[in-house]
Amino acid sequence: MGAVNILNAMEVSGEVRNGCDFHVVRSSLTVDHSLPLPEMKPRLVELCKDLFKKWSNLDESHFSTEKVSGGITNLLLKVSVQEENGNMVHVTVRLYGPNTEYVINRERELQALSHLSAAGFGPKLLGVFENGMVQSFIHARTLEPSDMRNPKLAAEIAKQLNSFHQVNVPGSKEPQLWNDILKFYKNASKLTFDDSEKQKKYTQISFKEVEAEIFKLKELTGHLNAPVVFAHNDLLSGNLMLNDDEEKLYFIDFEYGSYSYRGFDIGNHFNEYAGYDCDYTLYPTKDEQYHFFRHYLSPGKPNEVLDKDLETLYVETSLYMLASHLYWALWALIQAKMSPIDFDYLGYFFKRYNEYKRQKDLCFSLATRVF
């Protein structure tokens, strides 16, 4: 599988800095994702001292490190620094998962970050290095999938998503969803696995069938006239943080962000109610979806949203929810080959694709209401 043509983080940060009033420092260092934290610490200290010159004379005792979370693509670390004047400063170091450039366009991510940050979304980007970035630290906890169905939180997520979708990120406004799905399909459909069990599971997949489903759904969604917005595209619980004391919600990790369809962003978010275990009995009910839609469509006056607008968004979300299953199913196959992270990516493909097939007829029948 040919590597995606992608600028490295340092080239991109230069472009970001030149493109707007946004200062990002750069380092050519790398940090080994696989090291245990005690062995990683000296490298993290060296990185921080290289990026932030005001810390360059501090010895290692001024730095402490801890793991914040490890997703199935990234590792998040908190680095705390006691400065010479006694001030304690915290930053987040995000290490990209190995080989994630096959599925993530880092150029696109870094170009969007400055504009999203300026609009008040996520932590501030402070620096980039060869295999990651350093951002300001957010004092908040990561949500669990069960948090997202809390009506008060669901309303807040919907309001923030409305604001997020208003952000203007320069560059092409062409929706990238089908380009990305077809790119994933192309790479996912020609893999071979050294592990015979994995290879056996992989050969059970009918890629002709998958391709036919992609084009059928692409054609069907093309009739929807869904609004195109700058979408997060990965609004799972791990990318939502909440400061309980201030009741402040944060969106983080925009690495899959691109111009896409609003229904995809919402349908993808609803799929994440199921968590990594893919328990789709947790998918929001129609009433729960309408509660979300009201706060998304009219954050100030949610009870004044017209029934026809709720119905339109319901159909749109249901169809793009299917696209979310295809997107992450194909993504998982590439990860199964490329990622060293201990996660059953092949099993994840089947969970997502089987759910797509289970929901397909019902969602396709909804489309007849609007065509």
Characterization of this structure:
Helix 9 crosses helix 10. Helices cover 45% and strands 15% of the residues. It has helices at residues 9-19, 37-51, 106-118, 151-164, 177-188, 196-203, 207-222, 262-271, 286-297, 307-338, 345-367, and strands spanning 25-26, 63-70, 74-82, 88-96, 125-129, 132-136, 141-142, 228-231, 240-243, 248-251, 258-261. The relative contact order is 0.13. The longest helix has 32 residues, at 307-338. A hairpin with a 2-residue loop joins strand 5 and strand 6. It is globular, with a radius of gyration of 21 Å. The protein has 11 helices and 11 strands. Strands 1-5-6-4-3-2 form a 6-stranded mixed beta sheet, sandwiched between helices. A 3-stranded antiparallel beta sheet has the order 7-9-10, covered by helices on one side. The chain has 2 domains: 9-137, Phosphorylase Kinase, domain 1; 142-367, Aminoglycoside phosphotransferase (APH), C-terminal lobe (Aminoglycoside 3'-phosphotransferase, Chain: A, domain 2, Alpha-Beta Complex). By secondary structure, the protein is of the alpha+beta class.
